[in-house]
Design goal:
Number of strands: 18
Largest sheet: 9 strands, antiparallel
Number of domains: 2
Distance between the termini: 105 Å
CATH class of the largest domain: Mainly Beta
Order of helices and strands: EEEEEEEEEEEEEEEEEE
Structural class: mainly beta
Radius of gyration: 38 Å
CATH architecture of the largest domain: Sandwich
CATH topology of the largest domain: Jelly Rolls
Strand content: 35-45%
Amino acid sequence: MPYLGSTPAATILTADDIADGAVTTAKINDDAITSAKINDDAITSAKIADDNVTLAKLAGGTDGNIISFDASGDPVAIATGSSGQALTSGGAGVAPAFAAVSVDPWTYGTEIVDSGAASNEFTSIPSSVTDVDLLIRTMSFTGTVTATVVIGDGGGYETSGYAGDSSNFEGTSINAVSSGSSAWSLRTATGASSSYDGIVRLHRHDPAKFVYTQHHFLSISAETTTHIGGTGSKTLSAVLDRIKIAGGTFDGNTTFQIRYR
């Protein structure tokens, strides 16, 4: 006989009607739980097992980008650099960045070409520098003089306390030795017709002190038999920031350059 009564009301299950452990994964359709069914704060980090977030679950990015963290501790993508650049640190609290790799540890100054001055100088040498090279090319004077080199700090050039010697080697003979306390001397007294190529290298002896040692080597341009060499030292009042070469009036196309590191 047909049922003539009213349609029974639907039964609504509450959480209290479901026994603990009663809903297994086999009872849940593959597509039954959508993101709309999950509360925004329902999945905490404690609910995610270690090593359970795979690369496939990460959002896509730009090929070559690096994941880092910003000053707030949030993840951030470091922009891809150019080919040949390296990732360099900016220190604590600063995001790393791609930058060109320097293959030359030296910083060069502005070259000086002189044909009439009595001295040439390089200033504003950074305080962090430990090595300074004074590069000399075709240096010549209008007279027979000895070139001199002095150094200084923020208080100016110092003209006392220099120690060292410089010798002129011609063939198998040592022609002369020059020394003095007011400057380092480069024994170039061979006449106005000679020009010299060479280097004067300074080194900070101790990072905690202002003691600088130097050694130099020069030769007469286009000649293989006459050479000048020597060493010396000088204690400054503060960190070195300048160097000057003098001795007489330069002629020709005397060229000086400086580099430091």
